[in-house]
Design brief:
The protein has about 220 residues and is an alpha/beta fold. It folds into two domains: about 20-125, NAD(P)-binding Rossmann-like Domain (Rossmann fold, 3-Layer(aba) Sandwich), CATH 3.40.50; about 165-215, no CATH class. The chain is built from nine helices and seven strands. The strands form two sheets. It has a five-stranded parallel β-sheet with strand order 3-2-1-4-5, sandwiched between helices. It has a two-stranded antiparallel sheet with strand order 6-7. Helix 6 (about 165-180) packs antiparallel against helix 7. The longest helix is centred in the C-terminal third of the chain and has 15 residues, at about 165-180. GO terms for molecular function: ferrochelatase activity; precorrin-2 dehydrogenase activity. This is precorrin-2 dehydrogenase. It comes from Gigaspora rosea. It catalyses: precorrin-2 + NAD(+) = sirohydrochlorin + NADH + 2 H(+). Keywords: NAD, Oxidoreductase, Porphyrin biosynthesis.
């Protein structure tokens, strides 16, 4: 199988945004998609930079319904350098490749991670199609090169996930709480000995019994 080595492999991580200030540049449909994705992570603050004439109806709706600070102008370097609340993360979604390059260079000069829509080589990170159900989070990555395929794979995974996966996760969490942090090896033994379906069907009584058996 041939391999496209244009982009190096990426490190897939989960990033909590609750204490972060996120900047979105642009007001098009891609910006709207970014806002939807970001809101789900509940960042501390979202600022959007885009002239009123370039804001889509969906972006306007997000600004009105959520606490998004809107600066109605084109991007300027001062927005990154002269601010009382430093930017932690940038999403650029402008329809101008030259401006995208300028924004990316400015962000890197200030060590601010940036995602540039439709230009993967300018991205420090990218968003992945995800599926969430409680504590279950599934993400698909094509290393920023084939988002359409990633979305198809996401749908395939959703359609084939066992219905009781979230129940199994919740029960493993309860087992972990009962065993304590110091007993991860015991937790591994328990989860290795049971199928996903068996983990999902555990009752409170089963969890107490397993905790007593394996911890003794």
């Amino acid at each position: 199988m041939s391999r496209d080595s244009t982009l190096p492999n990426s490190l897939i991580i989960g990033w909590r945004l609750q204490s972060h200030h996120v900047l979105i540049i642009g007001g098009n449909q891609i910006a709207a998609n970014r806002i939807e994705f970001i809101l789900d992570a509940k960042p501390r603050k979202i600022t959007l930079i885009a002239p009123k004439s370039k804001i889509s109806d969906k972006v306007k709706e997000y600004i009105e319904k959520h606490s998004i600070i809107h600066k109605a102008s084109e991007f300027h370097v001062d927005y990154l350098t002269k601010t009382d609340d430093p930017i932690d993360l940038i999403f650029s979604a402008v329809d101008d490749e030259q401006l995208s390059n300028k924004i990316a260079i400015t962000a890197r000069e200030r060590n601010i991670p940036i995602n540039v829509a439709e230009i993967p080589q300018l991205c420090d990170f990218w968003l992945m199609p995800t599926y969430r159900d409680g504590n279950l989070q599934v993400a698909i990555s094509t290393n920023g090169t084939g988002p359409q395929i990633a979305r198809k794979l996401r749908q395939h995974i959703i359609e084939n996930l066992p219905n009781n996966t979230t129940d199994a996760i919740n029960n493993v969490t309860l087992l972990k709480q009962n065993l304590g942090v110091a007993d991860m090896s015991v937790l591994t033994k328990i989860t290795s000995s049971l199928s996903l379906d068996e983990l999902a069907k555990l009752t409170q009584k089963d969890i107490k019994r397993l905790t007593a058996e394996y911890a003794s």
